[in-house]
Amino acid sequence: MKRRLVQCCLILCCIPVYSVFSAEIHIHIVLENHLFKPSKILIPKHTKVILDIQNNDPDYEKFSSFGLNREKVLLPQRITRIYLSPLPKGRYVFTGDFHPASARGVVIVGEPQINCLDKLQEGNDVC
User: The pTM is what?
Assistant: First the structure.
């Protein structure tokens, strides 16, 4: 019983430490003329990502991605923040539901590369 309690305490103590040291990347995307720029985003796997989407169009748009499990209305002339939890390797398509023919993009999650991480930390949107 005492051993089980000690194990539980050790596990609970490690959880906050993991969340403090996990990497986080900010990526800025612009929606203009019903196009996402950049439309192709490369990120390392198992990394938290914050997408700041700036809608420069005079119309509303709806960011939608089944693979990312995210839907969010993008207000005109505003920046909307979307949080992505760490993702496994793969391709995740996103679209603008109100203009699906033109407002399209993809998040590509791959192996972490030192050059890629350096570029993202320097403020570049893609690597």
Answer: 0.71
| pLDDT tens figures, 88-105 | 999 999 999 999 899 999
DSSP state of 123: T
Provide the sign of the torsion angle of the four alpha carbons 119, 106, 24, 7, taken in this order.
negative
d(CA 54, CA 74): 8
Q: How far apart are the first and last CA of the chain?
A: 51
List, in order of start, the domains of the chain with CATH numbers.
23-121 (2.60.40.420)
> What's phi and psi for 100, nearest 5 deg?
-65, -20
Cβ-Cβ contacts under 8 Å for 117 (sequence gap 6 or more) = 23, 44, 127
What are 43-69's pLDDT values in tens digits?
998 899 999 999 999 999 999 999 999
DSSP labels, 66-117: TTTTEEEEE-TTEEEEEEE----SEEEEEEETTSTTT-EEEEEEE---HHHH
Q: Look at the chain and count its residues.
A: 127
**Cα gap 67→88, rounded to integer Å:** 11
